[in-house]
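The instructor's notes for this session suggest beginning with a concrete chain rather than abstract definitions. Hand out the sequence below and ask the class to guess, before any prediction is shown, which regions might be ordered.
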Amino acid sequence: MKLHKIFLVGFSLALIIVACKKDDEPVEIPIIKDETPYVLEYGNFPPPTLPSDNALTVQGVQLGKMLFYDKKLSEGELQACADCHRQPDGFSDTLKFSLGVAELPGKRQAMPIFNMAWHTNQFFWDGRANLLRDQSLLPIQDELEMDETLEDVITKLSAEQTYRDQFTRAFGTAEITSEKISLAMEQFMLSIISNDAKYDKFLAGNVQLTESEERGRVLFFQEYNPFFPDDSGADCAHCHGGDNFENDLYMNNGLDTDAEFLDMGREAVTMDAADRAKFKVPTLRNIEVTPPYMHDGRFQTLEEVVNHYNEGIKESSTADQTVLNTKDTGLFLTEQDKEDLVNFLKTLTDQTFLNNEEYQSPF
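After discussion, reveal the predicted structure:
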């Protein structure tokens, strides 16, 4: 009996000792694929059509954010995507042309990155990237921008355990490829949403517009009427309508005559002369914080933009008929009208989006 008790006591002590040793040793948790869905918060916007072959996950979006903010994607590790697409500037750049790793300027103004989930007509000013994943890789390889090879990017990322682990969480394997890089960056960019501007709160009945903002709102949506100038509006919504204040089209908005064309725009992609000097119609959301304006950044202020449409339309072979219709008379906007219109445009600024920690650097 005594031997039996001694054995039990000894066995219990041994278990306690083993347990203590195990508690003292670090427990390695295996890195595995995590398919937890990333839930988009898009409020009153219509549900976006997301890519069926690249479902958004928490880990995929996180990986895309890491890549977006990492200078390793550039030659010499000098520049990240976020350096030309800054969140305080609406994920755009306030320089006329962004400077690349060699301090060389690009050829067009940096487009803002948000609400990409509702874009259905390709990407870049000329639409040369069919999908957002295609767009994500081109600046890396552009000699005027990040000037790096995808092979070198893969080598740099593969050397880091942090990235091997995150690719495993996102895709189930530590192998890093350019395709996975593009899919992760697509996920992050699709997650960036702006839908909480003052105008959205006005639509929800939570705030009131000032008298000037309200007059500007009416002008924005009211159509041009050459026969009744007093009832004529700025007719902006034809091109900048819907929840995202754009129309998913490529248009020539009367900036230049045929002789003045310096950038062939969409034509360089489609090889169709009818697309000459046509560019993707951008969103007007957060337009207050994304100067300069137009594909070539020729206008520094919103007042200059309004003046262009009011009195600066130029005729050309591909200019849109909607803007050409106003060429002879202008939009009949008074100085007060212009001020009101600009004030309304500023109600599209979304401070929630501009300061959302979900979109900020993970480093």
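Then share the key points. Residues 1-21 have pLDDT under 50 and may be disordered. Residues 2-24 form the longest helix (23 residues).
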